[in-house]
## 1
Amino acid sequence: MSVHDITLTVNGRKVRLTVKSNELLLNVLRDRLLLTGAKYGCGIGECGACTVLHGRECVLSCFIPAVCADGWEITTAEGLSKDGKLSVVQQAYVDKAAIQCGFCTPGMVIASTALLYENPEPDEAEIKDYFRGNYCRCTGYAAMIEAVKVAAMRMKERGCDDEEL
Amino acid sequence: MQILSDSLIGAVTPRTDAPAKAAGRIQFTSDINIPGMMYGAILRSPHPHAEIVSIDTSAAEAMGAVCLTYEDINPVLYNERSVSIPSATYRDRTVLPKKARHCGEPVATVAADTQELAFKALKELKVTYNILEPVFDPMEAMKDGAPELYDTIYLGDEAVKIHNNIGVIRNIDEGDCDAGFKAADRIFEHHFELERIYHCQLETKGAVCKPEPDGSITVWATAQSIHANRQLLGRILGLPLSKINVKKLPFGGSFGSSIQVNTVTPICASLAMKAGRPVKLITSREEDFYDHHKYPAIFDVKLGVSNDGRLTAAHVKAVVDFGAHQIQPMAFLGCTAGWFASLYKYDGNIRFDGIAVYTNKTPCCAMQGYGNPQINFAIESMVDIICEEMGFDPIDFRLKNYRGPGEEFWGQGPTIRSIIKSSGVEESLVEGREVFGFDERTAPSSKNGDIRRGIGLARGFHTSGTAGPKEGEVIDYSSATIKINEDGSVDLITPVTDHGGGTCDALKKIAAEVLQVPLEMIGLSPAETMNTGYDVCTHATRGVYCGGAAVYHVAMKVKDKLLETAGRLMAEHAYNLEVIRDDRLGQGVVQVKGYPLKKMTVGEIARQAQIMSWGTIAYTDSYRQRNCPPCFTTHFVEAEVNLKTGVISIPRVLIYGDCGTAVNPDLVKGQLIGSFNRGLGYTLYERLAYDGRGRLTNSGLMTDYKMPTISEMPSVEDIDVRICHTYEPSGPFGAKGIGEAALASVQAAIANAVYNAIGIRFFKLPITPEAVLKELKKKARER
């Protein structure tokens, strides 16, 4: 098995790693960097629990060999909150009771953040379209839709730029 | 149990674990990492029925793996589910079997330094199987000459011979059914079939086990009952319970999937003990798909009805294919009979003939409702048929016949019964009729076009817990410890687990309300078997009602001690004192009743008690509820059927939940909406199909299993959720449960709405587009 030296920027911090070619980004994040926010739910890109940000886009970390992520800027759910303060999206999830068991939540808040980067004022149809790849077995999704809308509204009211998402 | 106007009970307060969950910082089992840990993996049977002749582990061991087979793990005969009393529990399995009885059954296990090495070692295990003929169909399994899964199993300590794969027969007869049917003017009989489905809780089952230097073991596992896990591990590992510590963890959804001690837990613990090192074993999604399923059911239902709209008798025959091991189909049949018996009065004439059959399929376990959604679909569809054919109003008919206040409710089969004291049925049906515009619905025959809409309703319930005035087949009590700290803050230690619905938040609120502490001053302590009394399990919608009652009971004792201590400090009789929450001071204050100038903060009292060496103001106890009140639900659904494609969608739904006092109203609504989503799946999409060789046709893939996603839900503004205005006198602050009730009537409500749209009655779930198109064609031919 060949090994590769890669550099990732994870939640704003640069890390250098030597990875095997069969090592997945999800396993590197969880087992080696101990960032367990991204979850294993299916291992083959079906459920969305492993979703992380690559720049401003959602990617499924269980699907990506770590070697392919060389040079990427990655943000996990842990990295969305800064100095112990939840991001606007995370806070909206808390306030709208959009969290039950919490296992899909890290992936959901990441996906919501990416959606708001792309579309700062999504309507319900656009939110639904964006979340088709993220399963939640607990909530029935309604509270999540409301959370995304609340996050969008708060961003607009505060005149925040999307760096603060 | 008076609720004050500024009460925490009923107030919307963001759940306390939500920030950590949002930030991805809550640790689930799979997030536990221990230095020096090994990784476990399980070899599973590729055959549905095969004797294991030998397992050669030498090549795997040569790679450095630790291996275990049936020869290595203590062959304790057990039932994974231990909420029933031992004499009502069939035992048929060991951790690793000598004979595999379903595809995916664990056969051997390894642990190695890396996951990669563990999987490589797994491939080196050489198993010689003697392949046996399998049987998959329950009707075939009962025939003479069918392959037999078992010869002898045990009921409690008594050996039981198994004939024709019949695991359990449970017949219940009350009143006089024959006379009841004779008294009927019309008799309705229908056959219903419900498929196996899968929990698909987002976190797959797993365990992390760490042997400790003193010979004990610490266990992190996906578990609805930490104490059940500890007790079974004690028997399997041959250790005193004081040497087994199972930690309480959040888990990624459950829906019943961990009501039992999952096989992965004793496997992981045995690996860790053999290796003398920590072992982590997290199952894959595909493995989880083969681990446990929801019980399928086949029902033949017969109802007698009088011309004046009274149900006079009911007879249900049930056949249940529960798979390769008993995870209590006996209790399942009893419960199913109970839900059926408690839905309507039937003039007291009921008969239930239940039979549960072994097949070479995945064992079935609890899944939100334990027979309730199954039998509710049958009975509530029948009620719709009766009303349609005899011209009764579906709401009036239900109001006339339902079992309500003053009547008996079976909370967990025939041995657990209590009297109904609170009911939101009338409120939900009468108000719902107006709110949903139920009376504006038109007959199926008056509709045309390719897109047709219909309105349907169904009502249901579930129990709150499994306790009655008399102890029955099921164990039910809970425990709690509460202590007041020297700054007025409070620690709550509870063994009650939280599936994600917010049970533990409710428990915190109950303690905070009794002791009048601000919510942020009460902490939920990490809990484990070592520092908690017994709690049977978070199942049967008992978390808030039973777990909460234990917390309430202990909090009241702590309050007594607090007032008594304050009395000594303030030179007042305790009965002259009261404690009230002072949000300005950020803690509770004890004051003289009617003379609030004389007061001390709770923190001062606790600190003085410490300085005077009087002791900590704390209490520990167990508590058993003595009722099993039903929490009722009603679903009004509008369904839209596309006649060209057969696709059904749900434009609108009105949901009523009767949970007594809603401790956390937003979380109650979350339960009701989440359950509606799962009910959509159960009714329209989900089905575990087998390929004839014992394999699942979805191959362990979630997308091929077809659960509802966000796209199938009605729009947010078309989901109307209402909480009934009821108060359960036996519950903590008037609360009962909601969890499982939330699913009970979804299926029938959707099916009844589909009937109203296209005039076709579906007796099998799921109602797939293919099924709709087939029935439409049949109907067109008949015309």
## 2
Amino acid sequence: MKPAAFRYHAPKTVDEAVAILARVAPEDGRVLAGGQSLVPTMAFRLAKPAHLVDINGVAALNRLTIADGKLVIGAGVRHAAFHKPACDGPLGALLADMVRHIAHYPIRNRGTFCGSLAHADPASEWCLVLAALDGEVLAKSARGERVIAARDFFKGIMTTALADDELLVEARLPLLPADAHCGFYEFNRRAGDFAMAMALGVYRLEAGKISAPRLAVGGAEVKPRRIAEAERALDGAAPGDAAFRAAAQAATAAIDPMEDNVTSAEFRRDLVLAVTRRALGRAAA
Amino acid sequence: MNTAPPPPRNARSPSLASRGRKDSWIGQSVTRLEDPPLVAGRGAFAGDINFPHQLYMRVVRSAHAHGRLAAIDAAAARALPGVYAVWTAADIAEVPPIDFREGSIPALDPYRQPVLASGRVRYVGDPIAAVFAADPYIAEDAADLVTAEIEELPPLLEAQAAPVEFSPGYSTEAAIIRQGYGDVDAVFRDAPHVVEVELTIGRHSGVPLETRGAIGYYDASRGILELHGAAKVPHRIQELLSRMLKIPPSSIHVHESHVGGGFGVRGELYPEDVLVCVAAKKFNRAVKWIEDRREHLIAANHSRQQLHRIRAAIDADGVILAIDDRYFHDQGAYVRTHAARVVHMTAGILPGPYRVPAYRAIGHFRLTNKTPAATYRAPGRYETTFVRERLVDAIAHRLKIDRIEIRRRNAITAAEMPYPRPLEALGEEIHYDTGDYVGLLDKLFAKIGWDKLNAEVKKRKAAGELVGIGVAMFVEKSGLGPTDGVNISIDASGMVEVVTGGASIGQGFETVMAQVAADALGVDYKNCRVIHGQTDRIPFGIGAHASRATVMTASATHIAALNVRRKALDMAAELLQTPSDALDIADGEVLRKDGRPGPSISLGAIAKNLEPTAKARGDRAPGLSAEGWFKTEHQVYPYGSHVAVVSIDRDTGGVTVERYCIAYDIGRAINPALVQGQIVGGYAQGLGGALFEEFTYSERGDPLAVTFADYLLPAMHETPEPEVLLREDYTSPLNPLGIKGAGESGITGVGAAIASAIEDAIGIPGAVRALPVTPQRIKTMLGRQ
């Protein structure tokens, strides 16, 4: 439970951080943000980074703002920042609902939104919201910067499109229109645990029918994603249990469930069915 | 304005008047003496104990469940700067395997755990080398550099699978335990009904907040080997170390410090404890080892895992005629200090509160390639209460008789007490002392509104909800004898010191002993300092396990305090020129019992008059002090009932514990708040074993629950506050204060009650056959639409 030796770097600016990262990335240099996943992994010596680039001193990364119709979340923004709505409208309320499912208070006070994205645990709530809303991230390195769309960002279990020398500078979530319906539901065995399955549904109503539906599932596959089959089942349907059940069945059929020693594929499908239907039910409520 | 209360009617002297509220300290929920340092951050746990120039130990463990250990290469580790030594088995060839508490048991000796494995590794976590270094980081770096050449062998992971060879001439079936009475076969042959079930209890264990720790220190100037960080049974550890290391017991001092939870797991003699002692002596430097959480989950004793194939012969009215149980006890890789204690006790206590005219239990005590198992809070009782109460529910279902009615028909009544049964637990014949099992159940029903509860649940069921009620009855065992002794002395300031060989694992031991001493002595309990867990202060001690501390040590404390009191009154009688039977002690002051004005004298002054050189002492033995010894013939048997109400999420299999109610008759509660604390804490752990906690393994024998992300402990959200009915209806006749034990009652019935409630909720009789009952298992029971 004692980490292996590492060199510690404490940059004050983004440029300084990416410059150090460019240097140390080839020697397994890692970015340290909230440390709620990385530090335990190091304590178990499952990760033995030779360098840690601590971005907690980079004040510019603490921004939480709205720009170009998007909520822009800097790499230093903690989970706890979302306890109160971070913006007006459905998005702020949705994030405030979801954040309560992330671990426990002490972890939420330290862990960061962008750190969760970079860690890319399939059961991360923030990864799900980025995928569901087709958000994007800004990655910066000494080589330059690029914007990566959610669908290109998540590659698999704890694997992303980020290069070793890239710093995830910020995440951007599109604001939701005032009439957007959204609902989130998660199942786990204990409060605060990683989701065994979760779903996020978002849609609008046009003439009483569902329009522009988004339905994403997390915790069930190697990465969170929108489930097109479920969205098709919703599009144009009247909101209600019949449509939601159909969408849930479509999602259940569409997924390639992860299995582990306490979760069979069949059980994971049971859960996807339940959480999808309930997330949509909450969206309608 | 004068708001002072009027003087008490019998006010006779200022001293007696101020005595006011406390005729007795026993039965009062006074605040804990232990708390001030703990809440102020001044506790001293194993991690807080340090010696100059100490070395830090890191244990290298097998990564394979079973294999031939061909070679260990520690050269790179030894070469690392800061590394003092690296040991493998060859370096400590003179140290024998870890002994059983009770000494050699020839049939089991071959299964003992070596301090460091050689030739064979038998579970993931088996210690194969020890690194000693200048700091814990270097120690862990060096441990990573130790490589082992292990030829994998097929692991044995199920106790019910066919036994294989453990070592030449020895099977993995270390023993077959048999207990019983009556002609079981004949009863089954003629019985109107036979109900048979197969039940399993998952592998789980105690997970104290503070992991284990051991600090070995050899004081060459005095020739004393010290072990710090002990808990639970310091005198047993002293004895075991003495036998194993061939050092006189009086040259080994074992010291308990603050302990952050024990639960049966912590405080036994483990390889790490032996290693720090041997190393401290060899290196002439203190050696410190602090267990990390992953280690705790693979190295500290596991517990509970059993499979029972049990059947009951019953008559047409649901009266049990006989029980026949064959069970498989998954012992893990070695037999540790407890030897066959749990597997043996299982057979003895399974019948619990019911009359069972004929009985047979056959326990297969089998080794597997998993972490060794031993006792965890309510060993044998959590398991057998689950098995027995599931069986009783199955009988009720078969005969379509109400499950409470079945229990009423079979429970032993108050009129049948004392109730001996020709079975054994912990080497003693079972002998229920007092109690009214159904009476307590009825009191619980009255408290919780049983009929109303059932009506509500029925209504909700009719509305389509999966909601159910579970019930479990049990008999606890506590207060294992045969004897304990305590020394009490009072110094010239009047401070009382109670020196015990007990142990404090967080249960409030100091407070309880102080209350008992204060009560007999007539002093404030806060004036009593209670010593425990220090083998250099008292040569005998029983520690804290098997719910025995209050029964045994408090009884001895009571007797010692009465002896001191007698001595004080005898001395005071001379000094005050008053017959001793006319004197009383209140607030540490000896004065006239009848309240007539007259001289008084403090206990401190009496102590001064009993100093070796004091003239007044005369021929009396020096010191205001005395020992007290308590001896008992039998354990005492408190009992209780649990009721659980759960609801099930049909879609996810999720379980919500809506309500949990516990009734317990403790005989006499020294400190009801502390008893309540024991019950509530036990209940929380019981929920863990019922719903969450399980040490799972891969097919290769890799442990899969090695962090708190995979080994799920119930937390606040999952643990609704239980309703506790604490009764003192049936005191024990077997000790002077009528005490029965408290430590395990909260946990014993939880697995049984939760299983019963879940089965009632899903409405599929016989479905719940295994603990923990996980959402996935519930979904499987419910079937899929």
